[in-house]
Amino acid sequence: MIVDHSIIIDRPFDEVWGVFDEPSLQPEWLDIMKSFKQVKGKGNEKGAVQLVVFARDSGDTELTVTILDHDPAGQVVAKYEGMQLPFILTSNFVELEDDTTEWAAEIEVKLSLLQKALTPVLKGAMSDLAKEMGTDFKKYVEG
Questions:
Q1: Domain count, the chain
Q2: How far out from the chain centre does Cα 44 lie?
Q3: What predicted TM-score, i.e. pTM, was given to this entire model?
Q4: Host domain of residue 92
Q5: I want to staple 48 with a disulfide (CB 3.0 to 4.6 A). Which of 2, 67, 111, 135 is the partner?
């Protein structure tokens, strides 16, 4: 299952990328993130591992984030594990002509045969997560 979401941020690429590419800032801009800890490597470099805690309605969720790929031209691919639905988040940032930046996020969830029956519900939840992340980030960077 794949969920796509994009948002336009009214700031130049360098400013937007500078915030996103510093993962320790995530608890400042992502309302549901309670904590961040770098476990291995530096920042978002390929192979880095981070431990994050999200506050959810069902209780706090601790996730291990492994950076699978990092391109300083504007892409981070990260695998989130530690819950029933591990997922890969690919974030692409593109500089637009008018000093704005587009963040295109793709969330890929590999579903088991039994989970596939829940695709409509799961897709909605992951879509909400992507929108929430985009909105929180936009508000932080533009504020």
A1: 1
A2: 12
A3: 0.90
A4: 2-142
A5: 67
